[in-house]
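The instructor's notes for this session suggest beginning with a concrete chain rather than abstract definitions. Hand out the sequence below and ask the class to guess, before any prediction is shown, which regions might be ordered.
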Amino acid sequence: MPEIRRVLETSLYVDDLARSRSFYTDILGLPSIGESDRFVAFDAGDGTVLLVFRRGASAAALDVRGQRIPPHDGSGPAHLAFAVDTGELDPWRLRLRAHGVEIESEVRWPRGGTSVYFRDPDGHCLELAAPGVWPTY
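After discussion, reveal the predicted structure:
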């Protein structure tokens, strides 16, 4: 069987692209690695990419240099977890609070990991996850 190595990119769909770009850059510190009027691509660390699309902007196929990107879009709150080191949880808590981002909940997992949950401006459930959440992490 061929092997899947990892999730390379994932997408969120938002109503206000500029507002989301500011949130992910200014508050979470993710550098933008590409953008257009349809999306912003962020370096989410360790070779992963977070694509934030303006809702509806990718609902039709897109032709790129004679090749086609299939349509995709989403609605409603999605979930995304960012891997962080355990020692970074307190600085993250302070940073989120300093920017007026409410921590919705925290979970301490049986394997020893901790998850800190909060929302982006579009209501997506974001998680900062320290090692010990999953058998693979």
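Then share the key points. The chain has a mean pLDDT of 97. Residues 1-73 form a domain with the Signal recognition particle alu RNA binding heterodimer, srp9/1 fold (CATH 3.30.720.120).
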